[in-house]
Design goal:
The complex is a heterodimer of chains A (348) and B (159). By secondary structure, chain A is an alpha/beta fold. Helix content of chain A is 31%, strand content 20%. Chain A has ten helices and 15 strands. In chain A, the strands form three sheets. In chain A, strands 1-2-3-4-5-6-7-14 form an eight-stranded parallel β-barrel, surrounded by seven helices. In chain A, strands 8-9-10 form a three-stranded antiparallel beta sheet, with no helix packed on it. In chain A, strand 5, helix 5 and strand 6 form a beta-alpha-beta unit. In chain A, helix 1 runs parallel beside helix 9. Chain B has a five-stranded mixed beta sheet with strand order 3-2-1-4-5. Chain B is globular, with a radius of gyration of 16 Å. Classes of the chains: A alpha/beta (348), B alpha+beta (159). At the A-B interface, helix 1, strand 8 and helix 9 of A face helix 5, strand 5 and helix 6 of B.
Amino acid sequence: MPATLGSPRRKPALVCPAGSLPALKAAVDHGADAVYLGFRDATNARNFAGLNFDAAAVAEGVRYAQSRGREVLVAINTYAQAGRFGQWQRAVDAALALGADALIIADVGVLDYARRAHPDARLHLSVQGSATSYEAINFARERFGIRRAVLPRVLTLGEVAHVVANTEVEIEVFGFGSLCVMNEGRCWLSSFATGESPNTVGACSPAKFVQWQKVPAAAGRPESMDVRLAGILIDRFGAEENAGYPTICKGRYAVQGETYYALEEPASLNVLALLPAILAAGVAAIKVEGRQRSPAYVAQVTRTLREAIDAAFAQGSRFTVRPAWAAALAKVSEGAQVTLGAYDRPWR
Amino acid sequence: MGPTVTIPRFTLPPLVARIGARLPQWPHAVALAAALEAARVGGVLPAAALAALEGRTFRVTALDAGGAADFRFANGRFRPLLRPAPAPDLHLSANLSVFLELLARQEDPDTLFFHRRLAIEGDTELGLAVKNMLDAVDLSSLSRLPMPAWLRRRLGLAA
């Protein structure tokens, strides 16, 4: 069933990222309905040095959000490693004991544990679970009682609407942020370069493998900023060129004598222009990417999406994107440019 | 919260960098190391995060001011480096206004990086640890530190 531009059935919740307590407060203060965060350990797919929450910070974040009528979702979204399953079980127990409104889980073993040990817990299927069909989502509902699924960023808007129409599980989609164009958390390009799994080392471009190097101008060659992942040159930026994250999929390569962005350009997903159709499709929540970013980003993006979602809900098909919103989101985007990603891809 | 101050984007005239580069650099290092030490002693920077900085050397270059500050975190303290190593473990370079925007939490470092207004060279993981440590600072913990009135207002702190 294609998405139609009738009046939206419900206003989606705005779900915003927090890598620190100040970021959580920024999200709540600027209009997030829910904030997602993770522990400072291997159970969290954004496990970076200095980022994330210990138990005391989760407790303070839950208090801050819930006292203002907002929710805290705890992402326990890595795949449990052999012989260490207890760590994931303890994370599930701790998050619920600290008052989390829901858990975002990818691993079926962790989902199974959470359902058995905590029958009343609200469970969300993480994007890292890579469920792109309603059959997969309904299976997770039957087996683990999931209440929501986060869709990977590879479906067209028509496909999203088709999933929503064929499941009772709430559907959450990405609305803004850096974009994975492949199988989330399982990028083989990244694994080929680093020997690591992006799901378990925090990102597809783990910092310890990244090298930025200013190269001064030399004979016949202008100044550049070279970026390498595990020693592999993935891009060379001119002095004034905008940059993105150092991911292989957004690098420039020589292909048959021409050097260009052969897979994807540095750009961030931005769905503002599609909001009426996304609301009409009946999604339950719109998610912002970026737990690795600073409170300033969280504040700017949350404020913008809050205004835009409220306007789209009130105005329906008369909704138009305000230039100030577009400018605010383009500014914080990779390469200072945005894309509709797979949502409006004409091909299947 | 009083009226907030927005830091304008500015570039100092080229003459400033030409003069600044000819001045001794050690006062910058002494001043920055002293400020970081004050933040550390004041309990603003978490000990667990600081441990990741042990033994590492840093350079902060204000491009349009022609100034650089070299320092090291060793034995749990920030110390200026009066004879800097040729290649520090982490090198941050930007115009002065960019550092002020970061200090005031007006702009996200990744955004500044995408726009090529902030450069990070050396150990990327160390850079990320520093960035995350600064992001996690609860602004209310800064209220005891001495700082200029404009920054206090920008951060929403009581005067």
